[in-house]
Amino acid sequence: MTGTPPFPNPGLYPFQGRAFDRGGGIRMNYLDEGTGPPVVMVHGNPWWSFCWRGLFLRLRDRHRCLAPDHVGCGLSDAPPDRDYAYTLATRVADLDSLLSHAGVEGRVSLVLHDWGGMIGMAWAVRHPERVERIVAMNTAAFRLPAGKRLPRELGWVRGPLGPLLVRGLNAFARGAVRRCAVKPLSAAVRGAYLAPWPSWNRRRAALRFVQDIPLGPGDRSWPVLEETERGLERLRDRPLLLCWGMRDFVFDGEFLAEWVRRFPGAEVRRFEEAGHLVMEDAGAEVESAVEGFLGGAR
Prior knowledge:
single chain, alpha/beta, Rossmann fold, eight-stranded mixed sheet, 12 helices, 16% strand
């Protein structure tokens, strides 16, 4: 078992993490702070619960805020492949296990970013009666929009050079902190995002997430994607807020248009000068929009 890395700057992450055994002795870290209607925040790759720090501070005085670090990410364990299946289905099961462990039984609001959108929405279509509201930020819960191709950077990661690039050179995480924010991140924030990826073994999840992107029926996570797509209809009556960084080179305006096509009643907030890390580029505006949408506006 590969344990958790040290976090270099606790002042940027002023939260007391918790942990539970998601099975097989694998420790999954999560945040659980505040009281009130529960809000569950689900990150993507190569991110971790650090990306929700602003929303936690904004919401925890009137909401119970929860955020997992997916296995292999953040402060969670990074087990070898023999002990953990790094697949979409397993991620969805982990989210369900976390909610059960934390005693969250009623309705929840979901805040989703990047691949957290697929994980969270896959859970939501299986439990529509438990979904109160949804916030989606630069993410997807469906196959690539018509005519869209996987960005070449992700294609390289899925190819034979993937292990060297991602696990050897840490190029995926390093490139993400450079390219996914329009406004340069401070050295401290960059360091916080890179802290979970110090070694070959700790970088396994970053590679496996990209390898697991379902692009066609031959991919092992394709059935979960199809199930999620079909189930989105069950959530069309749920309030949905789309907060979109319009300068995202992966989840771009075409993905936003697909969300709007599937959820025509969604509230849309476009941030023209924000990138994929919309919560970094437009933090205060995004936090205010989410707070108001969840009913916690001051």
